[in-house]
């Protein structure tokens, strides 16, 4: 007997049962609220409520990072790559892992369990580690994107050759080409996501002193862009 196909409610239930599902939903809500706040007059009651909501959600999301650094530790433990690519993975997973590890203490500060005196130093250290991790991720994604583009060109050439010789398109090759193109578009979206997150991390590292990226609208749009892509990625899994 075949397994019944999932409907929207099934998928939503499964999505929200996962830590990543709830975290990415909160991320979308947070940056949507931040964008509205950045575009509205500050003295409006709705703006004040949304600002408080955005701040509360930001603290809530940190609780979902408890133990998340172990995912990066495991990724490094089970890595099969060597030489230069492993160094990039060390930068990417190492930076991200340190960021998630420090975020646990930031959450404890926000909840009052640790002294507020630690907040500024923890925020800087975690933002710096996050930025390093994104730099490694972008570089790794560019390498994977180049490989996908090469595969796409090879498949296109193979399909053109088959079509010329036999007058027909190989269905298996066409399906494989479609899958590679989807992965290429997805990898491009991941690069955009990491770049958007990098903008916010760079602003935190610089203490909001870099003109252009310190705009509340720019930061809100960067967060919303990243949130939308990460939401889609986890929804499809």
Automatic annotation (TrEMBL):
Superkingdom to which the source organism belongs: Eukaryota
The entry's keywords: Membrane, Peroxisome, Peroxisome biogenesis
Keyword Cytoplasm: no
Single biological process term from Gene Ontology: regulation of peroxisome size
Main location class: membrane
InterPro entries xrefs: PEX11
Keyword Zinc: no
Entry's localization field: Peroxisome membrane
One Gene Ontology molecular-function label: identical protein binding
Topology versus the membrane: Multi-pass membrane protein
One cellular-component annotation, GO: peroxisomal membrane
Family: Belongs to the peroxin-11 family.
Protein name, as recorded: Peroxisomal biogenesis factor 11
Organism lineage string: Eukaryota, Viridiplantae, Chlorophyta, core chlorophytes, Chlorophyceae
């Amino acid at each position: 007997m075949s397994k019944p196909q999932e409907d929207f409610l099934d998928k939503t239930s499964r999505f929200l049962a996962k830590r990543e599902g709830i975290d990415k939903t909160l991320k979308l809500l947070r940056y949507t609220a931040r964008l509205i706040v950045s575009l509205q007059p500050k003295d409006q009651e709705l703006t004040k409520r949304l600002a408080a909501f955005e701040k509360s959600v930001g603290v809530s999301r940190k609780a979902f990072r408890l133990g998340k650094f172990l995912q990066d530790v495991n990724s490094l433990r089970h890595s099969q790559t060597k030489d230069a690519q492993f160094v990039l993975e060390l930068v990417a997973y190492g930076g991200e892992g340190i960021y998630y590890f420090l975020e646990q203490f930031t959450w404890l500060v926000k909840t009052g369990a640790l002294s507020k005196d630690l907040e500024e130093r923890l925020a800087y250290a975690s933002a710096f580690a996050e930025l390093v991790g994104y730099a490694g991720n972008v570089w790794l994604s560019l390498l994977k994107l180049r490989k996908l583009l090469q595969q796409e060109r090879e498949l296109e050439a193979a399909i053109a050759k088959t079509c010329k010789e036999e007058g027909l398109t190989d269905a298996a090759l066409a399906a494989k080409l479609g899958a590679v193109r989807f992965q290429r578009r997805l990898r491009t979206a991941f690069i955009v996501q990491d770049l958007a997150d990098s903008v916010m991390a760079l602003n935190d590292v610089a203490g909001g002193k870099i003109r252009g990226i310190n705009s509340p609208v720019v930061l809100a749009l960067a967060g919303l862009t990243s949130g939308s892509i990460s939401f889609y990625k986890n929804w499809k899994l």
